[in-house]
Design a protein that fits this description.
This protein has 2 domains: about 50 residues; about 250 residues, MetI-like fold (Orthogonal Bundle), CATH 1.10.3720. It has 14 helices and no strands. The protein starts with a helix and ends in a 7-residue tail after the last helix.
């Protein structure tokens, strides 16, 4: 009896659908195996560098290094003792504040633009898509170089001097560099979210007497909410992780004279630190390897939390 049931459940030998299902199962199995290998390799890469958190004998400790870190207390301590370092928490504050401001500006500019690109026949829409896609794949250091050429060696520099505002090497400069990349990433996400909402829903709401703004607020936004939240998380994470462009456009605050910063920056002691990616580079550059690697692990944790948030808050709205 069991043999008859087994034969009934198996597809016939000449059944093409059975062969197709078998091929699909094999493809899925290969993809899962590739994901497992990728995860295991990433874990191996992280765990193999955990020993860098433990203090070791400094190599080539020059007078410049010693002078640069005279006020530091994280030399020769596990993970540089970053949890009790005022420098680390100042960097965390700068990173969170600049990334949040950048995300708010990107949302104010990007969400309406994304809706227009997804709903209307904007002249040159293909060119705009190519432009933002190019920004996404460009090295961030190239964007920083373009900004410094545009604002430091052009008539715009004379305008800045007349206004008494110098954008490069400032907190506002960090936000500008972060905004270029975050806006491009956010628009790609928000455009996909709006494109996934059937425009007929808006038409039905309009036919029932709703104004365009009310139809957008009560129909489109709730349906695109998952993608919008995911875009906000992506924009914030991209801003917080920015390194090359900020380093070229703004250098490191810790190495610049205090007189070059506004009074409120000096009052908050923000001129003594940098955003986390730049601080990680500077700490490793000056021999504080344990502290630098600790910041690197902190950035990995922030990125992992952001990806988790995208999938939890964004649901099943895939934007790539």
């Amino acid at each position: 009896m069991s043999g008859e049931i087994l034969k009934a459940t198996l597809p016939p030998k000449d059944d093409p659908q059975g062969k197709t299902r078998t091929g699909n199962y094999m493809l899925v199995a290969v993809l899962y195996a590739a994901v497992v290998v990728l995860i295991l390799f990433s874990l191996l890469l992280v765990l193999s560098n955990v020993d860098q958190l433990f203090p070791r004998k400094p190599v080539g400790d020059t007078n410049l290094m010693q002078q640069w870190r005279t006020d530091d207390t994280h030399v020769g301590v596990f993970a540089g003792g970053f949890w009790k370092s005022a420098t680390f928490w100042r960097s965390m504050n700068i990173t969170v504040v600049t990334a949040t401001i950048t995300t708010l500006i990107a949302a104010l500019l990007g969400i309406p633009a994304s809706y227009a690109l997804a709903r209307y026949r904007v002249p040159g829409r293909s060119l705009i898509d190519i432009l933002f896609s190019s920004v996404i794949v460009l090295p961030s250091s190239s964007i920083g170089l373009c900004l410094i050429v545009a604002l430091q060696y052009s008539p715009l520099y004379e305008l800045q001097k007349r206004l008494g505002i110098i954008v490069p090497y400032s907190l506002g400069g960090i936000i500008i560099v972060q905004l270029v990349l975050s806006l491009a990433m956010g628009i790609s996400a928000w455009k996909a979210a709006f494109a996934g909402v059937n425009p007929r829903f808006e038409h039905v709401a309009r036919s029932l007497g709703s104004s365009p703004w009310r139809a957008f607020r009560t129909v489109t936004l709730p349906n695109a909410k998952a993608g919008i939240i995911a875009g906000l998380v992506i924009a914030w994470t991209r801003a917080a992780a920015e390194f090359g462009g900020v380093l070229i456009f703004c250098s490191t605050f810790a190495e610049r004279p205090a007189q070059s910063f506004p009074p409120f920056i000096r009052t908050l002691q923000l001129h003594k630190s940098d955003i986390l990616p730049v601080m990680m580079w500077s700490q490793i550059e000056y021999g504080n390897l344990e502290f630098g690697f600790a910041i690197g692990f902190a950035l990995i944790a922030i990125s992992a939390a952001s990806v988790f948030a995208i999938h939890k808050l964004g649901g099943k709205t895939y934007i790539w």
